């Protein structure tokens, strides 16, 4: 790659058949970018191969198809094949929304309409550089870091690496482990990983969701029963604890277990024996206990809903699974992993996410954690029409939508306007008529502007007195 350092001026390739437009752009952009030029496909692709520009400004209407977009779109696709990370901004006519959309779906970073407003173009380019820097940083971090996966748990962030480390550390022992974390963070996945890494891996992993089974059934489900133990107990049945013999018992949503059963469970944790309902004899069960909860058990203890002694038995080791929002670039790593998996399952030839979709993934707060991400990507794979998944497919807001651009433009215009008004008022020493004349606007308009920007109509002398 010719641009080894992120902080050198980024290389920008201009592809336009009109020399006047190229000159105009060069004039406006040369101080911030190293500019390369091309007027046709072969020169453009030669530059992409040799210089690997991070930014490409591409006119869609190139000969031989000046009124269409076929040549521009062909360059777009070939350039992305050569360098999938290139940020390509296409230039379209101002009534060519369909072409712009086609370009975005083929992987363009953004589009800009003719006649190109240089201010808008500069903002779009700055954002493209910013995103490109982020991508470079995160991919070099990925290359440097060690493990991206542990028993199906994908992640590279420091916070998930801590979880991997805990899984490795509890591997050889039989101590109970309490797994905490918000809903959808991957607690069950962690439990299965602990089992698979332990010496018990060839034995059963029995999961029971204490929150999903009605209270009246939970006891017989966990402990089993003898024939005739209660009306309807026509057969003897083993409980789930017993079926985890030599293996691992995973008590999910442990916070939902009723107090009466907590006592019985505590007894099992203390002496490793159980009694089926209606039985006289006790049965020894050798099972490792893992438990998970998405509620704060300490709070449940203080409210009298959870036994403290059971809590201390369960939480000999606690593994806290972080929320997805605390895992940095794992969001995009996981999104890509899910995309590859579902695209293969659904036999959809998807190549990845549009840059807007990547931005939207980063901007979202993920209250439903990994499960939410998994579901959004699954749906997007089915909904996507182009080769790249868009924010719309993910049902996420596009952070680079036209409105967002418009609002950042409006903000910069407002601040400039405010400066001009203030300057004119200072020059006119507070005389509104003079300042209005200087600005070439009417007095009422100037009054409106003064009010909007909270500027005073007073003379500088008055201001000095007040200060
Ligand atoms: N780091 C990860 N890598 C890959 N897949 C993950 C990861 N974390 C979670 N998943 C997937 O996300 C989904 C939710 O995970 P899981 O069921 O383990 O979460 P949970 O914390 O038990 O949620 P809940 O509290 O709602 O039961 C599963 O389909 C799981 O395979
Ligand atoms: Mg779960």
Task: Give an overview of the whole structure.
Helices cover 48% and strands 14% of the residues. The chain is an alpha/beta fold. The N terminus and C terminus are likely disordered. The longest helix is centred in the N-terminal third of the chain and has 27 residues. Bound molecules: adenosine-5'-triphosphate and magnesium ion.
Gap between N and C termini:
57 Å
So what's the overall shape?
A: elongated
List ligands, each type once: adenosine-5'-triphosphate, magnesium ion
Largest sheet: 5 strands, parallel
Which percent bin holds the helix content? 40-55%
Give a brief description.
The chain is of the alpha/beta class. The chain has helices at residues 19-29, 41-51, 70-82, 97-105, 118-144, 158-170, 187-197, 215-223, 240-243, 259-271, 297-302, 308-314, 330-345, 355-363, 369-383, 402-427, 432-439, 443-452, 460-466, and strands at 11-15, 34-38, 55-59, 87-92, 110-113, 149-150, 153-154, 177-180, 205-209, 224-225, 237-238, 248-252, 273-274, 283-284, 288-293, 317-320, 352-353, 388-389.
Sequence-ordered SSE layout with sheet pairings:
Layout (H helix, E strand, L loop, with lengths): L10 E5 L3 H11 L4 E5 L2 H11 L3 E5 L10 H13 L4 E6 L4 H9 L4 E4 L4 H27 L4 E2 L2 E2 L3 H13 L6 E4 L6 H11 L7 E5 L5 H9 E2 L11 E2 L1 H4 L4 E5 L6 H13 L1 E2 L8 E2 L3 E6 L3 H6 L5 H7 L2 E4 L9 H16 L6 E2 L1 H9 L5 H15 L4 E2 L12 H26 L4 H8 L3 H10 L7 H7 L1
Parallel strand pairs: 1-2, 1-3, 3-4, 4-5, 8-15, 8-16, 9-12, 12-15, 17-18
Antiparallel strand pairs: 6-7, 10-11, 13-14
Helix pairs in contact: 2-3, 6-7, 10-12, 13-15, 16-17, 17-18
The structure holds adenosine-5'-triphosphate and magnesium ion.
